[in-house]
């Protein structure tokens, strides 16, 4: 190999290759695909429930339905806690809302103690609601899989504008993903966790773009 060729290789590695990497990354950010909305205008829980203590607006929320038998989804909630909740505990405006029938208060308290044995529970919200409140809230998801005794094996991801997020082409099969299977560690770890990350990045990218536009307006005197 001649000295000239060696110099060309060194030049490529030092200057051109990093530039190509930068351009690829920049293009990826600009063409970033947002997490799809699968149902718009979900009823905020503050509207379905008289209590104003909880709300979906301005939060990134994972919603679960425990129904009449809390123990049916017990293992699923433990999965959710380990694979998703603990990963986002320190993220702003993150919460998990778990709805249950009012008569199951004792069972819920036991469940909270079990989950909270090794977990900071500050962003777990357990909400007692009537049958009518749960059904009205769930019906706004426009999901054709009915609740069974007011419970579901799915966890649902809701954004700050109270829209249901998911996937339009799940696993390349052309079907919509409305909720994530609580009993599948692979789905919670490989889909829900990733989709929450995408949603946070979406808001971060929007925040950066907003600040960039503000700076541009200041430069032109607007």
Automatic annotation (TrEMBL):
<protein>
    <recommendedName>
        <fullName>Membrane or secreted protein</fullName>
    </recommendedName>
</protein>
